Amino acid sequence: MYWKTKFGQIEREFARNGEKVAWAIVDGFLLYWHPDVYNALDVRIYLRVPEPTLKERRDQRSGYFTAVQSDPEGTMWRDPPQYWENIVYPAFLRAHQDLFENGDVEKGASTGKVPNLIVFNGLEYTMTDMLDRACRRISASAEEELL
Length: 147
What we know:
Distance between the termini: 25 Å
Radius of gyration: 18 Å
Largest sheet: 2 strands, parallel
Number of strands: 4
Order of helices and strands: HHEHEEHEH
Structural class: alpha+beta
Oligomer: single chain
């Protein structure tokens, strides 16, 4: 409950200045592809995970629902054979190669294309540790804005 209390305190500080805070954690496989998206974010965290782990996690999903105007209830999407290898992962690499030196998405240092990008190596920490690190960065950023 520490972070709930901490973010509540920050919200109250902003409110004293006449500002309303909207907290959001934005997640997406291609989140840092377009500057209109990443420039709208106050804190940018990239969770780096090796390709075999990404593929394994995707394979473990039974599918997911997609909703479109013609079918707002959605339909179940399942990847066809070779979809990961031929479509998803190559697109991911193309979208992220400029973010890392030598286009090395798995080990390269940030090129600075996405300003202030924080890279977490996802297999080095537990989910709790990553959440704690993310909350520290988010709260520090918000507190800097208050100064």
